[in-house]
Amino acid sequence: MSEWLKANPDVKLAFQPGTFQLEAGVERLRELYARTEVLILNREEAVTVSGGNYDDVHGLLDKLHALGPKTVIVTDGPAGAYASDAESRFKMPPYPDPAPPFERTGAGDAFASTLVAALITGNNLEGALQWAPINSMNVVQHTGAQAGLLDEHKISELLKKAPEWYKAEKF
């Protein structure tokens, strides 16, 4: 993969390491991390990859940026997500669940794919952070990783209905 990326320098990489990539370790994937535009990990994975302290979110973000990614996202389940780019750091709350989650399968993947889609369609990081939890919230209301995925129109509708506090805050 890194050879292909070297041959295609205009391609932007969003990287959400899976089990095999996490097991491969940072050293083996160093070039991939260095080439990453957007890195998305949950908090436990962020500790594994960075070697940082779970309780120090700024430290985790710093260590992950040191690997090369321009934008780093650390999801934290029901606590929301943290994001950092070259200019700002944000804390994003989760979108309010209409009911207790039915099943959490696919929540992280829904968050990651929606965040990247929002960035691709021209949203800034703050806007993308508002989109991502909406799809994640809806996925956990269904069985499986795909049944609750929303399209852009439905995400926009729910965003219009969001509570006033539902926004990315600098931290």
Layout of SSEs?
Elements: H1 2-7, E1 13-15, H2 19-24, H3 30-35, E2 36-42, H4 43-50, H5 57-66, E3 71-75, E4 81-84, E5 89-92, H6 107-120, H7 125-139, H8 152-160, E6 169-170
Parallel strand pairs: 1-2, 2-3
Antiparallel strand pairs: 3-4, 4-5, 5-6
Number of contiguous helices: 8
- Main beta sheet strand tally, sense and closure: 6 strands, mixed
Please state the second-level CATH architecture of the largest domain.
3-Layer(aba) Sandwich
Estimate percent helicity.
40-55%
Percentage of residues in strands: 5-15%
Distance between the termini: 35 Å
Q: What class do helices, strands and sheet pairing give? A: alpha/beta
What are the segments in which pLDDT stays under 50 over at least 5 consecutive residues? none
CATH class of the largest domain: Alpha Beta
The CATH superfamily of the largest domain bears the name: Ribokinase
Calculate Rg over CA atoms.
16 Å
The name CATH uses for the topology of the largest domain is UDP-N-acetylmuramoyl-L-alanine:D-glutamate ligase
Counted beta strands = 6
Give me the side-by-side strand order of the main sheet: 1-2-3-4-5-6
Q: What is the average per-residue confidence, as pLDDT, rounded to a whole number? A: 92
Tertiary shape: globular
Domain count: 2
Order of helices and strands: HEHHEHHEEEHHHE
